[in-house]
Amino acid sequence: MTGYKHVCRRKGCAHSEPRADSGLRRCPIDGRKLWAKPQVRPIRFQDLRHTRASLLMMSGANPAAVQRILRHSDPRITTEICGHLAPEYLRAEVDRLKFGVSPAPAERNGIRTKSR
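^ thats the sequence. predicted structure below, dont judge the formating
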């Protein structure tokens, strides 16, 4: 979404103002509330292809299979151009790393318990 277009509700009043938020605003002409209409970013077919590739990769699909589905000539094209991964997914992948450090011993009622 690119923002909001606040328009007057009164018939015949052509007052409108573009804003980034949907906060309450009033018409300077007659004082009525302005309606916040969301301005949606146009979507292209190519955007849907990129989204499909990203979702497939984040769900664990093989990059070579995604390359074949999208009919790319090289898997590198698929991973470099279409592999836009969500930040949450990338964070979860980094969290999968194990460094061999055991967690700190748990405390119960203010008394430290021995780790087994």
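DSSP finds four helices and five strands in the chain.
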